[in-house]
Amino acid sequence: MGTKADGETKTILKKLAIYLPSFYLIYYLWSILLVGSLKVDWDELGAYPFRIRKDEFSPAHRDAALGAWLAMVLTYLCSLGLTYGVVKATRKSWDYVVTSSLVHFVLCIIVNQAFPVNWIWWLTLLLATLLVSVCAEFVNYYLRDMREIELDHV
């Protein structure tokens, strides 16, 4: 019997089918926590992860805009563990992080029916993607690939 390789299309699609919904589940869990803690109107929760305008997404504000920014940052931090748990491959981990960012970018355009022009949103997205993809490779490499291998002593 053959083994499944991480580069096979079926394997990649299965992992993406787990990774992307989990990414948005984490995003919405953070959004729920932040909407509740910042006393934002609950009607805004549906589109909360897809905020792109400067008045809706900024760490400088003390309201829903701060919550939207924090939700993105915390989601990407948690996606580091998601990448470790789902991807399980050092060389492929950055692919999943970049794919989730690209899907998020496209969904933001679809939900808002506008191209994001907020520099804070772009900087946050690009830095989070870069940092998580690099850290995910290190985490997978050191915690998965470099773990001790027990050998039978003959």
Automatic annotation (TrEMBL):
It is found in: Membrane. InterPro entries: Integral_membrane_SYS1-rel. It comes from Chlamydomonas incerta. This is Protein SYS1 homolog. One of its GO terms (cellular component) is membrane. Keywords: Membrane, Transmembrane, Transmembrane helix. Its main location: membrane. It is a multi-pass membrane protein. The chain crosses the membrane at residues 16-38, 66-87, 94-115, 121-143. It comes from the Eukaryota.
